[in-house]
Design a protein that fits this description.
Helix 2 (204-218) packs antiparallel against helix 3 and helix 3 packs antiparallel against helix 4. The chain has an eleven-stranded mixed beta sheet with strand order 1-4-7-10-13-16-19-22-25-27-28. It is elongated and about 65 Å long. The longest helix has 15 residues, at 204-218. The N and C termini lie far apart (51 Å). Helix content is 16%, strand content 27%. By secondary structure, the protein is α/β, with parallel strands linked by helices.
């Protein structure tokens, strides 16, 4: 371990040999830092926080602090962070609550920009981008490859589907199905995240099928249950629609429609 002399590191912390820790950072006793991880100056990592390999934490972030939830009573809850995540300045990630399962979980290869807040019991997938000042309330779920633009605000318990896109300064208080772009101060569905799908290797035929599914869900005038049945039929011939069907089958909060 390479640590600046001013860093405060509890001897009980489990830290890989090649971890680098910057000036004035604080590492608590229940923290695990995996190989290749960089902790910049003035970073505080506390709580029962387990961090995988090759992560980068920039200055002034608070990682693993207790939940901002009045129900929290000092329980030994957890924050789990995977591999190869970039966490920029002034981010705040909280541990879970017993009522929410006890774990806040962040996956792999995520790009998390400055001033991002990830609240208690959130689940973040892989390859997610959260731009500056985007905020998640407690118990939110963000699917793989989703993008949250700057200053987007997500209400607690909302689920954001895979490959979806939240535009700048959107207020999201309902769940977002996979592939869907939302925009507006009160977020509304605006179409399919076509550019994102192209970048991730979806074929023109697959994108066209997803557009057809979007029209069935948002433009056909069908009640939600009938639209879901229609998508189920479409998914039998176009597997890329299956994530939409699965999302609509399990999502608990009403969707943006």
């Amino acid at each position: 371990m390479k640590a600046h002399p001013t860093a405060v590191i509890d001897p009980a912390a489990r830290i890989a040999d090649d971890v680098e820790i910057g000036a004035y950072s604080i590492i608590g006793p229940k923290v695990t830092l995996g190989p290749g991880t960089y902790v910049g100056p003035h970073v505080v990592i506390k709580g029962r926080t387990t961090i995988g390999r090759d992560n980068r934490f920039y200055q002034f972030s608070s990682i693993g602090e207790v939940p901002q939830d009045k129900k929290y009573g000092g329980e030994d809850t957890e924050l789990l962070i995977g591999d190869n995540n970039s966490v920029r300045e002034f981010c705040t990630f909280n541990t879970g609550t017993v009522q929410g399962g006890g774990v806040t979980r962040i996956g792999n290869n995520n790009w998390i920009m400055a001033y991002v807040h990830i609240a208690h019991d959130c689940i973040i997938g892989n390859e997610v981008i959260m731009a500056n000042n985007s905020t998640l309330g407690g118990h939110c779920t963000v699917g793989d490859y989703a993008i949250l633009s700057g200053f987007s605000l997500v209400h607690q318990y909302v689920e954001i589907g895979t490959h979806s896109f939240v535009s700048f300064a959107s207020h999201v208080n309902q769940s977002i199905p996979p592939y869907v772009t939302v925009a507006g101060e009160k977020a509304r569905a605006k179409g399919v995240n076509t550019e994102g799908l192209k970048r991730r290797g979806f074929t023109p035929e697959q994108i066209q099928n997803i557009r057809r599914a979007y029209r069935a869900l948002y433009r056909s005038g069908l009640p939600l249950e009938e639209a879901r049945e229609k998508l189920t039929e479409m998914a039998r011939e176009a597997v890329e629609i299956a994530p939409l069907v699965a999302f609509l089958s399990h999502v608990e909060r009403s969707i943006i429609r």
